[in-house]
Amino acid sequence: MNKQGRQKYRAVLKKCLVQAADILLNEIEEVIEEETSKQKRIWVRDWIKRRDKLGASANLLRELALEDPVEYRMCLRMTPDSFETLLNLIKPHIQKMDTFMRDAIPARVKLEITLNFLATGNSYRSLQHLFRVSKPAISNFIPAVCEAMNEALHEYFKMPTTEEEWKIIANGFEEHWNFPGCCGALDGKHILILCPGNSGSQFFNYKGSYSVVLMALVDQNYCFTYVCIGSQGSQSDGGIFQKCALGNLLQNGLLPAGYCIVGDDAFPLRHYLMKPFQLFPMDGKKLLITTIIYGIFRCVLAVWMANI
């Protein structure tokens, strides 16, 4: 290769190197720009950091507990004293330790959020704004708090198992309603839900909505003695009763001889389950019995009306 050829070759090589350097430099600049333009991951949002001063736990619920117990009960479905009792029972099971990076969410806040969610059905996003707790954290601890409540209250909520316990309830009904031998009022309550996927009409009830059914037995003090939760809304109260544990127990002699519970016309008439007369006209005795049974049945209706 002569001198002129070598010079031409060098010029082309130099031009190629410059172009390659420009391309490489542009790629590097794009990578740097992309990395620097990315937002830094937010560990805790500033407005959430002000939870201890401005959150519902520190302000709204504290004010309601002191000034308006009725509205407090509407928020959490229990009195302030009952809340403190429940908190003391489950706090050791739901309180996490603080770390050097951030403080743990207080057990009180976790319980308040869980109870408000169960009472009102508020969305996680609404609860996030109200209590200033992140939505991922809420979705994580609500099931854990529910499990802790279930374990802690296991001994506080149980059906009578002895003849003496049933007779105490029966004495209460006789004193309040003049109906001897009654051990409870039974009814079902539809709890509205969104239609689960691929469920067809299984949860579609006679009212034209989707629901699960809460079957409950209450005593003379309007307290639950038995619940069966989760039956499909398409089922009748009578059908659910016959399939639930209470129906089987009553069939096998749960109550003392001669004692019964009462329900409405949705339930089957049994020697252990009384319901009002439906045929008119009634004589004096039937009318009296029907009136008394409806009076007792109002015990369970009052529980539903109380939005518990």
TrEMBL record:
* Compartments where found: Nucleus
Q: What is this protein called?
A: DDE Tnp4 domain-containing protein
The organism's superkingdom is given as: Eukaryota
A molecular function (GO) term: hydrolase activity
Source organism per entry reads Acanthoscelides obtectus (Bean weevil)
In terms of Pfam families, this protein maps to:
DDE_Tnp_4
According to its UniProt record, where is this protein mainly located? Answer: nucleus
Q: Which GO terms describe its cellular component?
A: nucleus
